[in-house]
Amino acid sequence: MLARWLPRLPTGPRGLDTRADLRIDVDLRPEDLEGELDNLYRRLRTPGDAMFGSATAPINLPGLMFRTREADGETYVYVEDVVHARLAGYTVFNRLVELNRRADRHLRAPHSRYSPDYQRRGIATAVYEWGLGGGLCLISGARQSAGAHGLWRALARRRELIYVDVRDKALRCLGSEVDDAVLDELHTRMVMLGNGWTLEGLCAATGMRPLAQQAEASNDPVAQEADPVRRPRPRSRAAASSR
User: Fold this and answer.
1) Chain segment 116-150, per-residue pLDDT in tens
2) Maximum distance among all Cα pairs of the chain, rounded to whole angstroms
3) Long-range contacts of 96-102 (CB under 8 A, 24+ apart)
4) Strand ranges of the sheet holding 24-25, from the earlier edge strand across to the other edge
5) Which of 80, 95, 186, 215 meets the CB 3.0–4.6 Å disulfide criterion with 65?
6) What was the pLDDT predicted at 6?
7) What is the pTM assigned to this prediction?
8) Nearest to 218 by CA among 233, 204, 237
9) Which residues contact 227 (CB under 8 A, 6 or more apart)?
């Protein structure tokens, strides 16, 4: 799939590197998106459908109603324009198959689709903040749309954001800064902490390996061999010439 890259982000007020140069995908064609939204809106308005009568979330934006439903551990938020009787778009807080059971209890990967008429109006931001405010921690997927990239960038200015390595169902904390080589890898994801969470608490709840533990392991030859993301250190020029 065609991907493009956006420039690095400046360091945020928390001292974190808030760049999010993860893989950026192209967006859906507007006509395909509008067809999907029309179908979802009909389901929301059809008695007997599983989406009919969905609960509302306490998100206050003029003229909009935020309807929520849970299915298979995932949360769906549908944004209805009650003035023009149409669906503006939706956000799904997805489970990730890459996570183990412990991490799956606390992390969700948001995925949003909004009509061009409703983009850049703060709607998706309000939905993400609602999820984060409820104590949900967010993890990015392997790829992001340009809009999602901008949204994460904005939220990272006021929310704690870290990079993690997701491999073999396990999480490994990479800290608030990573180099370009690590950033390019599909295993590298962003995690944003919701209300009530600390990094230490998230590590304990999900089984994620914290940086302190990795620092200790770096001095253990056995742990070094077992670490799937550890790279060999570059040899010095003198060492290379001695062979």
Assistant:
1) 999 999 999 999 999 999 999 999 988 877 778 78
2) 79
3) 96/139, 96/141, 96/166, 98/166, 98/169, 99/139, 99/166, 99/169, 99/171, 100/169, 100/170, 100/206, 100/207, 102/205, 102/206, 102/207
4) 3-4, 24-25, 144-145
5) 80
6) 29
7) 0.76
8) 233
9) 214, 217
What CA–CA distance (Å, rounded) separates 93 from 53?
20
Residue identified by tokens 């770096």 is 218
What is the rounded CA–CA span in Å between residue 80 and residue 89? 7
Residue 28: HSE in the Cβ half-sphere, 13 Å Cα cutoff: 15
pLDDT in tens, 209-221: 987 666 555 555 5
User: In the chain, which residues have pLDDT < 70?
Assistant: 1-28, 212-243
Question: Are 159 and 132 a contacting pair, CB within 8 Å?
Answer: yes
Q: Rounded to an integer, what distance in angstroms lies between the CA atom of residue 153 and that of residue 117?
A: 22
- How far is 159 from 12, CA to CA, in rounded Å? 9
Query: What is residue 212's predicted lDDT score, i.e. its pLDDT?
Result: 63
**Tokens 């509008």, located at residue:** 34
CA distance 67 to 103: 26
Asked if 87 and 37 count as a contact pair (C-beta separation under 8 A), the reply is yes
Residues 6+ apart with CB under 8 A from 37: 86, 87, 88, 89, 90, 113, 115
